[in-house]
Amino acid sequence: MPEIDSDHPNPCYPKACAIQSCLTSNSFNQSKCEHLIDDLYRCCAQFYKQRGTDAEADSCPIPSVVERRIKKMEAEGKGGDGGTFLETRRKS
């Protein structure tokens, strides 16, 4: 996955907006928007890799939730983000 905008305070926000638009146009049928939800989790994983697990963004769940979802995606063959980020150092 390409690097996210390191200057943006909430770089995954557009992905969250895409999910909301998809849900609205599909009568809130989550299965039709799963690919966008996966994209958000990939973005959030990248966000935590770049900024550390202490970072916060309104669009991203807490790091442990993102980590769990990425592992599930990898197990399902959807690909993840290419590794773990919870083992990275926390930013001071």
UniProtKB/TrEMBL annotation:
| Entry's localization field | Mitochondrion intermembrane space
Cellular component aspect of the GO annotation: mitochondrial intermembrane space
**Intrachain disulfide bonds:** 12-43, 22-33, 44-60
Q: Does the keyword tRNA processing apply?
A: no
Write down a Pfam family by its short name. Answer: CMC4
User: Does the keyword field hold Ribosomal protein?
Assistant: no
PROSITE patterns in the cross-refs: CHCH
Give the keywords, sorted. Answer: Disulfide bond, Mitochondrion
Q: Which InterPro entries does this chain map to?
A: CMC4 (IPR027179), Cys_alpha_HP_mot_SF (IPR009069)
Annotated region Disordered: where?
A: 73-92
Q: Which family does it belong to?
A: Belongs to the CMC4 family.
Q: What is this protein called?
A: Cx9C motif-containing protein 4, mitochondrial
Organism of origin: Pseudozyma flocculosa
Q: What is the lineage of its organism?
A: Eukaryota, Fungi, Dikarya, Basidiomycota, Ustilaginomycotina
